[in-house]
Write a structure and sequence with these properties.
6-stranded antiparallel beta sheet, disordered N terminus, signal
Length: about 280
Amino acid sequence: MQFSTLFLAALSATGSLAAPLQSRGASNEVRVALSNQAIELGVQNTFVDGKRDVKTPSSSGPFQTVELRLGPKVKNPNLRCQIRDQQNKPITVVRGANVDITFADGGKGPWTLKKTAKVSSIICDPAFKQGSARAAAVPRAESEVEVEEEVEQYLEEADIDDEEEVPTLVARAKDTKVRVLLQNTAAELGATTTFDNVKGRASKRPTASKGPFTSVTLSVGAGAKQDLRCQILDNNRRPIKVKRGANVDTTFADGGKGAWTFLEPKKSQVSEIICDPAFKKAA
């Protein structure tokens, strides 16, 4: 199919035919592009970096693809967004093997709407997590049957027609695992330590390596205490101070906002990881 010069220009502006990542706009820009090549339609919206932001596209579509493009200096490189249909229901999108109702950048190009749809709103929110929007939509139930019923209801409301996804979503909703990922990207070093069903103070030594590390990420399963905080100790058993955005603390949480960077010291071996429901955010 041949496309008009006007449409090709619009696609270039929205990112469908955009330049490589390093050529994107403002360094902290958050941009979502919607397109439908079949009808030569493309629109884009920019969003506030670092907080929940909701926009209405200049055209409701219908659209076939959506793409999130993040500038290199956005506060959260793992930021995810969501598009909603005219009934305000999340629209399911697909990229490769990933099927979700939120979408990320990752430098991997556009996501395809599972079904061509009109879009009423676009939401970008640091609280969105991969796959967790589905699990979060499932209220805590007293039995596995109730969980499955809640998941099936959610699949119907979100227009997800694949029944094979039910066991996966049930597992996510019941996941009580807490994972602590220590990394040093410069040294290509990473170690994940897993805790299960943390109800009281729990501690472990890092799995595989003591480091030195430069960052830590906490991932809390949907069935675990969502505001759980953990702490890492150096070889002298002193808490390592970490930083994420404006937050500086000696304990760290998940919150769907990605990694915490070591602050004091900036690089350190880790002798112990402690997760404790009694830990509180620094005042």
